[in-house]
Amino acid sequence: MSGYTAVTPDDLRVMLEAIGVESIDELFSSIPEGVRLKTPIDLPPGLPEQAVFAELRELAARNVSADDEITFLGAGMYDHYVPSIVDMLMTRSEFLTPYTPYQPEISQGGLQVMFEYQTAISELTGLPVSNASLYEGPSAVGAAAYLAKLSNKRTQHVVSRGVHPHSRETLQTLAAGYGTSVDEIGLDDGVTDLDALRDALSDEVGAVIIQQPNFLGAIEDVEAIAALAHEHDAPVICAADPLTLGVLEAPGNQGADVVVGEGQTLGNRLDFGGPSFGFFAATEAHLRRMPGRIAGETSDADGRRGFVLTLQTREQHIRREKATSNICTSQALNALAGVVYLSWLGRRGIVEIGELMLQRTHYARETLAALDGVHKLHDRPVVREFALRLDARVDRVLDRCADAHINAGFALSRSYDEYADGLLVAITEQRSRADIDRLADVLGEAVAAERTASEARA
Amino acid sequence: MSALEGGSTAQQRERATTIFEKGSPGRRAFVAPELDVPQVDGLIPDASRRAEPPRLPEASEPEIVRHYVNLSKRNFDLDSGFYPLGSCTMKHNPRLHERVAGLSGHARLHPLQDPRRAQGALELMFNLQQALGEIAGLPHVSLQPSAGSHGELAGVLLTRAYHADRGEQRTKVLTPDSAHGTNPATVTMAGYEVVKVALDAAGGVDLDDLRSKTDDQVACLMLTNPSTLGIFDPNIEQIAQVVHEAGATLYYDGANLNAIMGYSRPGNMGFDIVHFNLHKTFTQPHGGGGPGAGPIAVSERIEPFLPRPQVVRRESVNGSSAALFELDHERPKSIGKLRGFQGNYGVFVRTWAYILSLGAEGLKDVSEVAVLNANYLLARLREEVGEHLPLAFGERCMHEFVLTGAPMKQELGIRTLDLAKRLLDHGMHPPTVYFPLVVDEALLVEPTETETRETLDAFVDAIAAIVAEAADDPEIARNAPYTTPVRRLDEAGAAKRPRVREVLDA
Q1: How does pLDDT run across B328-351, given as a tens digit for each residue?
Q2: What number is the average pLDDT over the span A167-179?
Q3: B96-355 — its CATH code?
Q4: Most B-contacting residue of A55, A135, A254 (CB-CB within 10 A), to test interface
């Protein structure tokens, strides 16, 4: 017996008697003999709490976390500071332990949080309607493409290679199911190639998918892309980094029809990739096709202001096979972290943190590109991340930096054959000038050492 | 009760105001780190520079804290009271899990960290894959799907890839009438047509109907066992045979796995693909509706198609050092990725802590007590209110059961909805209502293993009191609740004129 169940021998006697059986085993008699487990599950015996804690601590100690090195690794998730009030509110029982607010009278807290979250996302993205969140970023991109498919029934998606590789791959996986082709548009000096996009567009294209800033950190011309797509009535889906939207124009104000993205940068931990949340905002026309939960305002029997889950006729539990998505939850707790973080940051803070990243990113890019054997991969404006080219094997350079407790970034060869010598470097408000200068020292030495070593090998 | 006499509670008298209505221009909680590099102007082209900042709140930290703490008090939660929400497995969430998931080696680990510097995380994931495979009786596991519905989508896409690899193009997926709504919704998203299978008189799959609908166009049968009626299908072996003879796959919706651990395994029943709900069976906190995780376990023939990447264990080359855990992206037949990175790792940490705490015997104890509690609650309810709220199917149940409120509606004039709303005044979360759809006025009750006999008895007392009260005056339940922060809400009005965000001043 574990400490989580509570049946004493006396309880058991009373309970079996009330049921009218002799033993617990009898309650399982409907399971046919042929499918019964003949031996116990092959797992070790249970452990006391302190032993479990020790085991999990030991596993944690064998990871190199963002506390153990100075990290410039981003590529979709970023080492931002999470304020203490986020932890405090996320661990409150009242937010942590309920389920989806099926009974709105006793779920006003969670429902109002969703409503506030939707308002904040709507403000950030420049679009009038937001849902209460989806699983995470790349699957939100996939969900947006499916929404486009439902709305116009066209047979082709066009996606920029500036979109996160995981988003593109997720899109391919899902589109293979509902029978839509996915064609990629290459990059020209770091941004989506507008000529190639123009050539690829036709009335068969049901969605144009881009990312802002794109995977190489570059700022895309969303307005120009939207203008091209709209000539063919193709909706534009823009994946965006929400923490850059204090300084970058909202994609919704530049013609994007759907804006989605990874919410981790808004008060969520790295957690080796999840859980976080995906956000999803759209134009009014798409409201009744949106996936996932949506909170709406209403009033109670006495006229009090209140909140409910609304537009549920879109959803699977009512519409079943005709639903607009199979998603039946949000990432409510992670979205709570998101809206608490945005409230903490505030109207001025969202601009200040964007400006700080912008300035430090510029400083880091210029400082690193001045090193011997280090070049800018593209010259486009960037906000929080930038791509470099190294005159040395990137994986070996990264190992040398790791020895000095610096994580210099993401080797682009992990996702792009065309950038075998590419390194993607991310900056957050946690990386000071001193950290950047240290990176410059270590990276410069590593590149020099690796060039010497490779010459020696040759 | 004062509310019945026209009084109101302090919470009811307070108008709901959002964080956007609080604070004042100029207030802040965030203090930015100083700009320690030379300021350069014009880094963003004018056309891309945001013209007007987003209208986020302007509030001090104390205001923000008070706002959200007060909001939290307008929620009911599992730590405060009984939550027998059928099909959702609202079991106790051990706080140990939050503590270990919060350790910086887990919580502050970047998902793209070099695998050689994330060995603890990869070993945890590998061991969890092994354990879930053992619990399912299916050897190959992908942890990637983020929810049950996501696992379902993975399962149907795996089926598509499996048939395509054999040169087959099938068009239909079977689901029983009692299925979760996610099943048919998933089928459509994966490009198949849904074909419904009828239930027999005992609430199981109607074998004759199944046989008549299973042909070479059927790709898959999606099944929950025990079903959403809380009944273990005694014909499961015949069902598996029919499906496999037609060359289709058998998919197990793991929503009800809490009923059978240590007694049976989906693999033993002939299933090819299973999804787990780590937020149900393995007690990831539900968080107000997420996060969760929906890993899948599959049979040998489905394995080549699993999502990328898989966590694998490589034995050391020279035998002197420990084995190395890696992410295997080279999977040529894979359906691809379903999301970013490797899945909801924070959920895996909690699940692994739970499995270590319980072990094999503890997991069996979970299912035994879950089934015991459900049957005890069922027996007590039948004794007290069985005439008005009879069991919809059969005599006993597994970990949950479905009552029908149809006699109560006819005889006492209150609906299942009214009963549920009146339960709120008793400080309990109502069971799932109006699901499964095949039962009129359904009430789906799942007490879980972590509730005490005293709590179950108190629930019986509350239901009996509501039924007795309704016999006297049905209006009381029809207008309930009275004591909650708000009373019954106008849901139809909300859908008719959607207001999905706060209106803000410029």
Answers
A1: 999 999 999 999 999 999 999 999
A2: 96
A3: 3.40.640.10
A4: A135
CB-based contact (8 Å) between B476 and chain A?
A: no
Domains within chain A, CATH numbers bracketed: 70-79+347-457 (3.90.1150.10), 84-340 (3.40.640.10)
Does the distance separating the beta carbons of A2 and B362 come in below 8 Å? yes
Q: Are strands B324-328 and B310-314 parallel, antiparallel or unpaired?
A: antiparallel
Mean pLDDT over A206-228 rounds to 98
The one-letter amino acid code at A22 reads E
| Structure-block tokens of residue A194 | 């507008």
CB-CB contact of B350 with B162 (8 Å): no
DSSP-assigned beta bridge partners for residue A375: A389
What is the reported pLDDT for B2? Answer: 42
Q: Using 50, 70 and 90 to split pLDDT, how confident is the model at A322?
A: confident
Residues of chain B with CATH 3.40.640.10: 96-355
What integer best gives the mean pLDDT of chain A? 97
* Beta-carbon contacts below 8 Å between A and B: 709
Q: What is the pLDDT of residue B4?
A: 54
A54 interfacial to chain B (CB closer than 8 Å):
no
A416-420: average pLDDT: 97
Tens-digit pLDDT profile for residues A72-126: 999 999 999 999 999 999 999 999 999 999 999 999 999 999 999 999 999 999 9
Contacts of B187 in chain A (CB under 8 A): 321
The pair of structure tokens assigned to A435 is 């950290």
Interface residue of B9, B34, B37 to substitute, partner A, most A CBs within 10 Å? B37
The larger pLDDT score, comparing residue A318 to residue B85, is at B85
Q: Would you say residue B1 has pLDDT above 50? A: no
Contact B220, B156 (CB under 8 A): yes
The burial class, CB within 10 Å (0-12 / 13-18 / 19+), for A293 is buried
Cα A439 to Cα A360: distance, rounded to the nearest angstrom: 13
Query: CB under 8 Å to B110, separation ≥6 — which residues?
Result: A65, A66, A71, A73, A77, A79, A270, A272, A407
Residue B269 with chain A: CB contacts under 8 Å: 35
- Calculate Rg over the CA atoms of chain A: 26
Let me know if A91 is exposed, middle or buried by CB neighbors in 10 A (0-12, 13-18, 19+). Answer: middle
Q: What angle do CA A244, A250, A252 make, to 5 degrees?
A: 145
Q: What is the mean pLDDT of residues B214-233?
A: 95
If one looks up domain B359-492 in CATH, what number appears? 3.90.1150.10
For helices A332-369 and A433-457, give the axis angle rounded to 10 degrees.
Answer: 60
Chain A residues 89-128 with a CB less than 8 Å from chain B: 89, 91-110, 112-113, 115-116, 118-120, 122-124, 128
Residue-wise pLDDT tens digits, A259-281: 999 999 999 999 999 999 999 99
Phi, psi of A89 (to 5 degrees): -75, -35
Contacts of B286 (CB under 8 A, 6+ apart): A97, A98, A99, A100, B78, B88, B90, B279, B292
**Nearest residue on chain A to B36, judged by CA atoms?**
A433
Q: Whole-angstrom Cα distance, residue A122 to residue A324?
A: 21
Spatial separation of the C-alpha atoms in residues A70 and B244, rounded to whole Å: 54
Give residues 195 to 214 of A whose Cβ lies within 8 Å of B: none
- B347 lies within 8 A of chain A by CB: yes
CB contact B163 to A (< 8 Å): no
| Confidence check: pLDDT of A2 > 80 | no
Q: Where in chain B is the domain with CATH 3.90.1150.10?
A: 359-492
User: Which tokens sit at B180?
Assistant: 């979760």
Name the DSSP class of B29: S
Question: Token digits for B232?
Answer: 């273990």
